[in-house]
Amino acid sequence: MQKGHPRHKQLKRAKRDMYLYRRRKSKEMVEALRLTFKCIGETFAGVSKAIAKYFRSA
């Protein structure tokens, strides 16, 4: 005799797939945010060096 309804297996598999999908997407978002803030930090560092150089020479 079959144990459980086949639909339950399908739902369980779908929930697991969605869990893995969301986990992968969240890792991608974290990586994107990290790279964005890294670029912003590098830009800010360059601008602050330029400002400091300007005021040192003035």
Keyword list:
mainly alpha; 58 residues; 90% helix
- The level of helicity is over 70%
Shape, principal axes of CA atoms: rod-shaped
Radius of gyration: 25 Å
Distance between the termini: 89 Å
Number of strands: 0
Arithmetic mean pLDDT: 91
SSE run: H
Count of separate DSSP helical elements:
1
The unreliable regions are none
- Structural class by SSE content: mainly alpha
Largest sheet entry:
none
Strand content: under 5%
Summarize the structure.
The protein has 58 residues and is mainly alpha-helical. The protein contains one helix and no strands.
Folded structure, characterized:
The chain has 58 residues and is mostly helical. The mean pLDDT is 91. It contains 1 helix and no strands. The radius of gyration is 25 Å and the shape is rod-shaped. 0% of the residues are buried. Helix content is 90%, strand content 0%. It has one helix at 6-57.
Topology at a glance:
Elements (H helix, E strand, L loop, with lengths): L5 H52 L1
